[in-house]
Amino acid sequence: MFKGLYVDKPESVVVLEEQEADLQANQVRIQTEFAAIKHGTEFHLFSGKSPHAEQRFDADLRLFVPVSEQERSQASGRRSSVGNMAVGCVIEIGKAVTKVKPGDRVYCYGPAWELLTKEETDVEPLFEPMSPQDAVCLDPALYAFTAVRDARARLGDTAVVFGLGAIGLFVVQMLKMSGCLHVVAVDPIEKRRTLAERYGANLTLDPTQCDVGLEVRKVLGQGADIAIEASGHYKALSGAMRAVRNCGRIVTLGYYKGRDSELELGAEWHHNRLELIGSMPVWDNPLRDYPLWDNERISRTLIELFRQKRLISDGIVDPIVDFEDAAAAFLAIYRNPANAIKLGIRF
Predict the structure, then answer these.
(1) What architecture is domain 139-278?
(2) Whole-prediction pTM value?
(3) Would you list the domain boundaries of the chain?
(4) Do 340 and 316 meet the contact criterion of CB atoms below 8 Å apart?
(5) What are the start-end ranges of the E strands in 197-268?
(6) Are the C-beta atoms of 133 and 317 separated by less than 8 Å?
(7) Helix 190-198 with 166-177: angle, nearest 10 deg
(8) Which CATH architecture has domain 2-137+313-346?
(9) What tens digit of pLDDT does each residue of 12-46 get?
(10) How far apart are CA 328 and CA 97, in angstroms?
(11) 77 vs 71, 112, 116, 127, 343, CA distance in Å?
């Protein structure tokens, strides 16, 4: 038996016991040491207000379609696991496994469970100098990497980043790495703004205390070339439209909640002829640079950037709590995110 973290109903997270399944020939059993959650997506689903609450995404039509009564009935009471990536030690392997052996440290996508059973192809060895914190940050780094490439950030550009969660903080690092001359980082949480400054942001702004569009123009003399919106809030998307110059480029990667849009499309959007780009490297979306860049190449690149310490996870996985305290920490951060960036769970 092992314990795992689950959502059993909207705004309720619990620890439940599970029985491990028989190990198949191509599978690996992992004793989890460290895990992390994906704040934007998991909190969105946790709220019960995501598009998936009343609709489902039809992969063939590429559309959200209404959920039938039968599907709704089947989904009611269904629990979902909490957690996004995990690091652990291999304790058992199937007879056909050759990639890893018992005792190896590995990382993978997976929930916050004490034991994980994964296909051999879904786990990767954890080699120094990558840390467990680096490994669980590969997912937000993937989204940040794709967004910066979609933004076509170039040497000398100016940029504004809205939302300084894990993804936004990696966006700041990557924009500076891309040669952006001036990066403005925007978030209402002081702790996140402070970390963005450590990562190279030239200016940080609290959007609840100023008009970001005006402040950017005071500093730059005009709007920024690029805005990357990583918060998933409609007000932030409106702010991004106000923060860029005419013909500026806005890239979105936040998971927007609710249906009450704050967008004023008759203002800057219309008059400045802005470009809006949706950035999503999963859900069967090919990368815009495909086939030169595919997910395998991005993954190799991100691993090397972490190994070279050109990407830094220090400070992003915060707070880190013991598994026994994870449910309470999850709820506390959901209700008040001011003291958190990305929840890490220690086993």
Answers:
(1) 3-Layer(aba) Sandwich (3.40)
(2) 0.92
(3) 2-137+313-346, 139-278
(4) no
(5) 203-205, 224-229, 244-252
(6) yes
(7) 20
(8) Alpha-Beta Complex (3.90)
(9) 888 999 899 899 999 999 999 999 998 877 776 66
(10) 37
(11) 12, 20, 23, 40, 26
